[in-house]
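Tokens as discussed.
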């Protein structure tokens, strides 16, 4: 899989495409993609959603995605690092909102479809994104202060929609096939041992406990445990690169017996240890 690397802490730009020409990829930064016009399909972490004007997609660094364009589409990209988020938003944010932002950025059960549902907010977010693009591109007096304030406004609207949209998961379950629902459920609940019990997974997907394992293996070629472990490894990568947790803390958060067990499993998937993975990503190896 291709990995796009950006060395700027903050970047805003727009592109217009009739055909998507970038292979399935992930990044080394956070990315908010706003659809200024056009429509098509967004493929994110092997889950597919339609997109249209006003939609916005929030991606973490290791989230893999690509688009299928149906009508010529203009994208506005806002790329930022965790450091930029801390220095320009979290540092001056009230504790309650700060906790919500941190939860969103670390939560691995985030909504895959557009994070903006409220009709008025869709309009306002797009307007703010256009102004942000202008300010960032023209470098006028006080543009850094203005772009920081605009980014904060955009992100706060995003938070309001994402964290309080009670219908989001209902929307997902209405628009996915059975196997996509199962994979989505695993992705959302991978760190919840109770919800990941085979009987609860089977009940959620309306399959018998005896058949759900067979069904998943038949449809995807991988067992339930393989899917669970793959998601845990993805979460581990994010925590290694984007958090300050040590190896033992990450092992505990992901439900491994201990750091040694985590090291063994991680190395089996990545061919290097968690500590080596982190050093290599930081350019230390």
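Sequence:
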């Amino acid at each position: 899989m291709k990995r796009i690397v950006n060395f700027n802490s903050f970047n805003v730009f727009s592109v217009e495409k009739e055909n998507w020409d970038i292979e399935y990829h992930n990044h080394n930064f956070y990315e908010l993609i706003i659809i200024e016009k056009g429509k098509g399909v967004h493929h994110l972490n092997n889950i597919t959603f339609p997109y249209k004007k006003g939609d916005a997609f929030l991606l973490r660094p290791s989230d893999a995605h690509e688009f299928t364009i149906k009508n010529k589409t203009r994208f506005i990209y806002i790329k930022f690092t965790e450091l930029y988020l801390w220095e320009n938003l979290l540092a001056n944010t009230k504790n309650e909102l700060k906790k919500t932002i941190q939860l969103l950025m670390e939560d691995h059960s985030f909504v895959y479809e557009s994070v903006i549902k409220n009709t008025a907010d869709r309009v306002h977010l797009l307007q703010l994104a256009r102004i942000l693009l202008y300010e960032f591109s023209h470098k006028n007096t006080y543009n850094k202060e203005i772009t920081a304030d605009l980014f904060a406004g955009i992100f706060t609207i995003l938070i309001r929609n994402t964290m309080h949209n009670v219908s989001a998961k209902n929307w997902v379950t209405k628009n996915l096939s059975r196997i996509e629902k199962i994979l989505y459920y695993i992705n959302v609940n991978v760190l919840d041992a109770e919800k990941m019990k085979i009987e609860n997974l089977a009940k959620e997907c309306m399959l018998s406990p005896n058949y759900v394992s067979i069904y998943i293996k038949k449809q995807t070629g991988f067992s339930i445990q393989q899917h669970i472990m793959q998601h845990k490894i993805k979460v581990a990568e994010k925590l290694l690169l984007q958090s300050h947790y040590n190896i033992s803390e990450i092992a505990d958060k992901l439900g491994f017996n201990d750091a040694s067990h985590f090291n063994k499993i991680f190395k089996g998937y990545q061919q290097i240890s968690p500590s080596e993975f982190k050093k290599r990503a930081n350019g230390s190896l």
